[in-house]
Design brief:
266 residues; mainly alpha; Ferritin; 10 helices
Amino acid sequence: MELRHGAYAAFQCAAPPAKVEAVRALWNQRQTLAIDPARPPEADTAPGRPELPQLVLPKDVPRRSPFTAEGHAALMHSIAHIEFNAINLALDAVWRFSGMPPAYYTGWLQVAFEEAKHFMMLSDHLQSLGYAYGDFPAHDGLWTMAGNTRHDVVARMALVPRTLEARGLDATPIIQVKLRKVGTDAALQAVALLDVILAEEVGHVALGNHWYHWLCERDGLDRAAFYADVAQRFGGPRLKPPFNLPARQAAGFTEEELASLPTGAA
């Protein structure tokens, strides 16, 4: 099997357990898999996904208090949904974009493997609460940006890992504060899970920063000007404080980029 063909096959898997197993198999075989950087991408296609959760507009996702058992489950379900989407985003980065160095493909395969691990951690946590992935509605915001940037690897690196996924670095500590206030065993278990996820997500954002900087240098692009252009063209979200500056710094954002964040960063 060639790695990018394998990534596309995993991308097409609809059932979460099958997708996770396909990613694990690719990761375990990575040292023996050939990489064809010239392989043309498949037709524009959505990833394989289960029938549930029901996908709704972000404004239509019900808000629930994490201080209730159902609200805690809904919160963890929303994070599990992000991680499931992140598996597909990493696989899409592997199979879709041609002409990159081998390290690009193996790097995003590692991200897919770690996102699959995160998803299963959260899925197991939901099961311990008496719920399953698919029990709550969710939105498709992450994949919308993937579709917007499907023809441009530089825009993809700019707006998915180093924008949308970087927002997770900012949001996770805030979620953890709320869960510590809840104080139940389940909430504190969730805090510990999020510690693991946050540490590895720093590496995922760092990978996006690395390849964004590499691509801008390769193509003679001004990093800041190109970012501002694609954020406007493709609907990048407006960045809002508070920001997790230590995590962003560890993820490879430059001092200039951190200084340019909106006022109020802390």
